[in-house]
Prior knowledge:
alpha/beta, 9-stranded mixed sheet, globular
Amino acid sequence: MKILNIQRMSTEDGPGIRTTLFVKGCPLSCKWCHNPESISPSSHTEWISVRCMGCNTCIEVCPKQALSSTEKGIVIDQEKCVACGKCAEECPTGAIEVKGINRTVDSLYKELIKDKAYWGKDGGVTLSGGEITMQSADALLLVKKLHENNIKTAIDTCGFCKWETLQKLIEYSDIFLYDLKIYDSKKHFEFTGQDNKVIFENFELLAKECKEKGKTLWVRTPIIPGATDSDENIMSLAKVIGQKADLWELCAFNNLCKDKYDRLKIDWDYNSSSLMDETRMKELVKIAIDNGAKNVLWSGMTKRCD
Length: 306
């Protein structure tokens, strides 16, 4: 599997304390994406300025001469870089990272179960993205191995995949964290680069299967200024979700990923957008409940309203 990283002691990717495996590659290109380094399935190398001590070891060991030093710091020529990881291995401060490391299912399993003592009765492992279903064959092997060893597993997905992929994962997964972002298909394409038809079709099928097999289904909607935060969008999504989900979480926009876009040399559309305010998040929860949804809550940082 091509992974980004393993995040330990997570409390935001399912119930309890969890270990979350993030993989590389996503079929959507959401304009607000908080993990832009996960979108491309290809590996790449990043320089993290705040960790750098200026020793230039990375430049010296690069076999492709893809790194150079400037007044602004280390510059990586991504066309020359083959993400071999030599620079990351030799960097004494971890200022160089390769995004997209190939790992076998067995090695990942051994790494994940190191945290077993922390999970308790509710926690476990969450497979996230990018989009985990893009690596469906290996994801199925991993979640099966975890399940067979009595480890609770969650699948975090945008739903943009073949139904058969989700259907196979249901057998060995305890929880599905399912993203429903925008109801209007044209707006969905505008903000994510893909149509939402298959996402809503898969949601209906998944909700039915989860109910029949006793699996838990959580829906998550990112609340993004000017994209997903309208009354109409939440109202429409509520009518689709209704009583089908065990929980619907409205996740407030945050801007903590600015530095990621800087490292990738990408202009972020939401660079100057402010946080949602608490009053508005509560209004959206009420709209969702008034339109037939159950167990709706909001999460995330909000700006102060004096």
